[in-house]
């Protein structure tokens, strides 16, 4: 399922909500220090906001990231022939220093 604008919007809103929950937690912590109260736990509204926004971000990122690949490597290799398994194009080098060491000779002069 492709990522839509809705999924991207959900992810952005979730990230902003996580940042707001973190700022609220820091502000609550500084309030407790000023009033010299002991920190026991965060208020329930900050906890709920943090958990809900975490799930929003996870949902949005799951659709933005694209299709998942199979864990088993055999699934990808079943569709390939034996000749293409040993073809490693990242190791094929055509411009190397050998052309400067042995310049091409003119066969037809």
Automatic annotation (TrEMBL):
A UniProt-annotated Pfam family: MMgT
Organism: Dufourea novaeangliae (Sweat bee)
Membrane topology annotation: Multi-pass membrane protein
Subcellular location(s) of the protein: Endoplasmic reticulum membrane; Golgi apparatus membrane; Early endosome membrane
Keywords noted in UniProt: Endoplasmic reticulum, Endosome, Golgi apparatus, Magnesium, Membrane, Transmembrane, Transmembrane helix, Transport
Keyword Transmembrane: yes
Quaternary data: Component of the ER membrane protein complex (EMC).
Molecular functions per Gene Ontology: inorganic cation transmembrane transporter activity
Protein name (record): Membrane magnesium transporter
Sequence similarity: Belongs to the membrane magnesium transporter (TC 1.A.67) family.
Annotated InterPro entries: MMgT (IPR018937)
Ranges in coiled-coil conformation: none
């Amino acid at each position: 399922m492709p990522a839509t604008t809705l999924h991207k919007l959900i992810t952005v809103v979730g990230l902003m909500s996580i940042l707001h929950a973190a700022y609220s937690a820091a502000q609550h912590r500084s309030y407790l220090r000023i009033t010299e109260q002991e920190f026991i736990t965060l208020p329930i509204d900050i906890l709920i906001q943090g958990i809900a926004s975490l799930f929003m971000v996870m949902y949005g990122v799951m659709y933005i990231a694209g299709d998942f690949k199979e864990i088993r490597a055999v699934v990808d290799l079943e569709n390939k022939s034996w000749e293409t398994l040993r073809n490693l194009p990242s190791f094929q080098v055509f411009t190397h220093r050998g052309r400067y060491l042995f310049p091409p000779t003119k066969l037809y002069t």
